[in-house]
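ingest -> validate -> predict -> emit
validate: passed (alphabet ok, no gaps, 167 aa)
predict: started
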Amino acid sequence: MDTSRIVFIHGSSGDKSQTYKARLLREIFPGMVTPDFDGDLSERMAQLRVMLGNETSWTLIGSSLGGLMAALFATQCPGQVRKLVLLAPALTLPEFVKNLPAPISVPTVVVHGTRDELLPLEAGRELAEKVFMNLTYIVVDDDHRLHKAAEELDWKSLLEEKNGPTP
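emit:
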């Protein structure tokens, strides 16, 4: 697997590219891209579009707001994305809900914690099931940060397999 085609998109404040999940994933996938994003969502999306350009075969791993960014990019440019892995994605934010995209077939894995107090599990799952036609939804006993789940997931098989592991 070409690790330079894997991008970790961090969440909002305090969850930059040097966080626990970014460091953990870089250990597993040396060479993966872990950029820092700044500004509001539209500014962050512009930064992501410039970074990804017109290249294809991207694997996007997004955490929280980064999950929303990855989902938005994949719905706008599905031909550029090989796979999505969304960690407690902020799909319930108005930017996604108000402009619910047409269903897409990009292989998508969502990992969401039962103890996530920031983003409700069921509402996020309902939206994901409407948008992603090739979806694997993994529910874990964890909070919004998903640190425990990040340690326990088999990342190599998660990214290699077309649909990810069975929940």
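The mean pLDDT is 90.
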